[in-house]
Amino acid sequence: MMESVRRFLEKELRLKVNERNSAVASPMKRKLIGYSFYFETRLKKLIEKTRGWVNYFKLADMSNILIDIDKWVRRRLKACIWNTRKLNKIIDQLLLD
């Protein structure tokens, strides 16, 4: 699999492949151009920061603001998931063509 990907990148796209940093694996387990797709880590950090922020401001009347923030966070997480799925689909199409 790696050989066919390397051939495609070098011949069709005229890109140089760094063999030492290259591998074929699930995007959930690899870093891609410096970005990792570990949603568990993202969620843990998000929960930690949200809890701290809520506890810091818990005396204030913040229910409406927290609902808006919750909606925004859920949209961003869905966007991350969709972008990962879209990337997987593009990679599959490139490999199958």
UniProtKB/TrEMBL annotation:
Residues 39-87 form the Group II intron maturase-specific domain. InterPro entries: Mat_intron_G2 (IPR013597). This is Group II intron maturase-specific domain-containing protein.
